[in-house]
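Practice problem 4.
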């Protein structure tokens, strides 16, 4: 499946795609859907110019088919103005493992329920341990959309582009610049939605809320201005702020006002955030008990309702965002749209499905990797079950090709369970039949990219006309 040269890559696509210089034409869409598996595989596992050409082809094919990376900013601001009834909560899904297989399941569920308001995301930390840089992540999503016939705006988000308190304390400029560099890479790849997380800088030791939130809103405003310098013409990147670090104390309406008022004072005239992340009782990954099961978590829905209302009524933004929610009990999800939550972040639950339904041999290989390579992360207070549960996510990147190459029956079983879960969540969050309203308010900008070239592979360009002839 993996192409070893651009020539092999183009030969694989013969009959489905024609390439003439920088111009890509689809000659047989049905055949392309048959061949896109290999194209995505090459976009992930090939090297150098071959890999980069595969990613470029996927971008251009997406543009030709109407699969456009886009910003959800306009939808959220329309919700904030009351122009779109806020009867749904947008799911933002972190796809950590088996991206192509998992995303295909997401798109099948979205097509079945006519969902347009959905986000794919990956956090700063996840990019590292899942070995998915932004360009690869976008390529997999576009390929999955092509395979499943999904069309329309594709919202890809940088989740928790977080300023580390430790790094900031040691060297503020270096830490902020690290986030800026990641923003550059992400926006260039097609991430037109970014959650700026400077909530780590909140200092509750100060006596006033403004002082507690000051570093948070000042650095968030600084990064907002930088994002506005990076965004492509015609795109307003959707940005989010955060007032309370997930897993810590619950947020209050007073904290929201302190953050927003300070943020707006510092920001200037550029477009600001379109949503605000808050803490209402959850934690990332859930709370793991000694036997490896998850503790029950209760979300403070009334606080979430008040925070969302304040965000819309006082500042005209979409509302509050709930993090760390995928491990909540099934009975909780219908409540999020009821209290006006604009967005909900879901990650660990999908990871758990993969581990629960993968072949036993693959799971044991992953667990052995964790035991052998991550023992330094095993806290004295943890049982082995707690350690494995909290660290197994890091086996996705280290064993990425092995996960990708699970036999077809195993992949289909995992995908079927994932699709059922996506359908359940989409129904509970009321995003069915949101495709039209999403398309109506979203500005879609066509963006063609030049074909990649490397100096040492100039001769590869001689085959550019092979598919056109």
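Answer key:
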């Amino acid at each position: 499946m993996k192409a070893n040269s651009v020539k092999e890559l183009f030969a694989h696509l013969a009959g489905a795609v024609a390439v003439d210089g920088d111009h890509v034409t689809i000659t047989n869409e049905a055949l392309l859907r048959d061949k896109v598996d290999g194209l995505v595989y090459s976009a992930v596992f090939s090297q150098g110019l071959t890999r980069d050409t595969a990613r470029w082809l996927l971008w251009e094919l997406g543009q030709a088919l109407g699969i456009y990376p886009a910003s959800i900013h306009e939808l959220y601001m329309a919700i904030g103005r009351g122009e779109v009834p806020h009867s749904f909560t947008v799911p933002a899904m972190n796809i950590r493992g088996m991206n192509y297989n998992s995303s295909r399941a997401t798109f099948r569920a979205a097509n079945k329920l006519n969902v347009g308001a959905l986000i794919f995301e990956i956090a700063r930390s996840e990019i590292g341990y899942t070995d998915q840089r932004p360009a690869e992540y976008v390529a997999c999503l576009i390929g999955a959309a092509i395979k499943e016939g999904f069309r329309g705006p594709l919202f890809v988000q940088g989740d928790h582009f977080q300023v580390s308190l430790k790094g900031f304390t040691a060297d503020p400029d270096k830490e902020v610049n690290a986030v800026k560099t990641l923003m550059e890479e992400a926006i260039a790849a097609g991430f037109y939605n970014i959650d700026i997380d400077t909530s780590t800088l909140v200092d509750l030791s100060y006596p006033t809320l403004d002082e507690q939130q000051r570093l948070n809103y000042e650095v968030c405003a600084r990064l907002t201005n930088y994002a506005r310098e990076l965004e492509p013409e015609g795109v307003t990147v959707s940005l989010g702020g955060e007032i309370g670090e997930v897993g810590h104390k619950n947020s209050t309406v007073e904290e929201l006002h302190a953050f927003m008022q300070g943020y707006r004072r510092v920001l200037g005239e550029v477009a600001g955030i379109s949503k605000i992340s808050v803490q209402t009782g959850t934690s990332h990954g859930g709370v793991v008990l000694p036997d490896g099961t998850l503790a029950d978590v209760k979300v403070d829905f009334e606080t979430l309702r008040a925070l969302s209302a304040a965000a819309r009524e006082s500042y005209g933004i979409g509302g509050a965002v709930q993090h760390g929610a995928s491990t909540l009990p099934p009975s909780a999800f219908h409540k999020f749209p009821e209290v006006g939550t604009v967005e909900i972040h879901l990650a660990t639950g999908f990871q758990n499905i993969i581990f629960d339904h993968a072949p036993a041999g693959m799971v044991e290989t992953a667990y052995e990797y964790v035991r052998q390579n991550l023992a330094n992360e095993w806290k004295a207070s943890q049982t082995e079950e707690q350690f494995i549960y909290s660290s197994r996510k890091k086996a996705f990147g280290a064993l990425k090709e092995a996960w990708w190459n699970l036999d077809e029956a195993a992949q289909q079983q995992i995908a079927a369970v994932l699709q059922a879960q996506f359908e359940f969540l989409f129904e509970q969050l009321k995003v069915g039949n949101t495709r039209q309203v999403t398309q109506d308010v979203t500005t879609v900008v066509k963006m063609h990219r030049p074909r990649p070239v490397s100096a040492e592979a100039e001769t590869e360009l001689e085959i550019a006309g092979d598919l056109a002839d």
